Amino acid sequence: MSGHSNDNVSSKELWGGGQSPYGISYGKMYMWFFLVSDALTFGGLLTAYGFSRAASEDPWPIGEQVFRALPGLEGQYPLIYVALMTFILIVSSVTMVLAVEAGHRNDKRGVVRWMLATIIGGAFFLGSQAWEWSHFIHGGGGSFLLAKEVTITADNGAEYTLPVGEAIYMDHHFGELAEAYSEGDKSVELHNDHGHIKLIQYGEHTHEADLHSLTINKYIADEQGVSGVNVAKLWNARSESFTFGANMHENEYALQQSYANFFFFITGFHGFHVFSGVVINFIIFIMAYRGVFERRKHYEMVEKVGLYWHFIDLVWVFVFTFFYLI
Amino acid sequence: MERDDLIVNDNYSLNAHHSEEEGVKIRKNILFVTVLLTAITAVEVAMGIIFKRAETFTWEMIKWSFVALTLVKAGYIVMSFMHLGEERGNMKKSILVPYLLFIVYLIYVALTEGFGHLFNHNSLH
């Protein structure tokens, strides 16, 4: 497919001038060199992630535990949504390679159609990522840290001695009011009669949330539910430190802020590549539609932006493995 | 200077045209790679769900198989989708060799230092 690139040519003739020794145009070659440098950037980011994780003194969150919700469904769907995003990106990579193939047949209609499909796939991926960021930022109910050591019995019957600074997780319903309460919202009152803990928000509508259960080890290992008298024990041992979701300063997923920061930076940097890829694809789509490449008699521009688009898929494959899976 | 994306020269990849019949063959290959990449992703997710994380030999092996499967996926994307497999050998090497050299060295250095830090921390406490 690459013209005469696989012909056997002696190196004297190859480097003798008058032709490209690599059998490739400057545009494609420099796209490749750019991708190598970009790949080193992403390689550096993922390696830095590996370094932080290897050097971490506290347990590191598990992808399957953190990313297990689907839009509208909180629950046990470990990595299903991320796998779906991966699939969307693979499919849009396929439509891209089909656009390149159509270009090699000078099939303008094919190029236009497949470029459009690629742009739609990219837009879907960006939308999915926006949802995932939103979910990550809002979190799953929030956590508080213990101010003193507590020994409790979890629902599985095992006894746990939790040290100072251990994170305890609330459910979504209670967490919502707990967030307002922990921020000093005067309309939220804490009621504690005989170990029955309740938050009530007074206002136009009165909201109530009972503290039925808590979770320990939510993101770092097999999570355990805690209920009954043990809930009050944990609640009474709480410190002032509440965390809800994630931002640049704190996160409920891990004691290490670097976990959330790596999530934001790596997926954000990749998402920015997807965004710019969609924009570039759109420009090429318009050019193909207007017949620029037809007049030029070749569709190499589609190949060049195709390289960039496949590279985005390539990076995601590694992000998926090293950030989410392992 | 003459722009080589505008000239037509038979030596360059930009003149790589192919016929309808070749197109059918290429599309068949694309379909195969698509199915393979999707299947590998599904297998990875399933393995992550089935096997529980622990400091065991099994989990260690699963982690390495994740890395191996990822490299297979990456290989297909680069060689097939990005057509690097069809480029001239010297071109292929000038892309792959420098990258692999840098990245393997970087991973080695970072992980050695990372675990070293943890080892020092643990032995001090």
Overall description:
The complex is a heterodimer of chains A (326) and B (125). Chain A is α+β, with helices and mostly antiparallel strands and 326 residues long. Chain A folds into two domains: 25-139 and 257-325, Up-down Bundle (Four Helix Bundle (Hemerythrin (Met), subunit A)), CATH 1.20.120.80; 147-243, no CATH class. Chain A is 54% helix and 14% strand. Chain A contains ten helices and ten strands. In chain A, the strands form three sheets. A five-stranded antiparallel sheet of chain A has the order 9-8-4-1-10, covered by helices on one side. In chain A, strand 2 and strand 3 (159-162) form a beta hairpin. In chain A, helix 2 (26-55) packs parallel to helix 10 (300-325), helix 4 packs antiparallel against helix 5 and helix 8 runs antiparallel to helix 10 (300-325). With 125 residues, chain B is mainly alpha-helical. In chain B, helix 1 runs antiparallel to helix 2. The N and C termini of chain B lie far apart (67 Å). At the A-B interface, helix 2, helix 4 and helix 10 of A face helix 1, helix 2 and helix 3 of B.
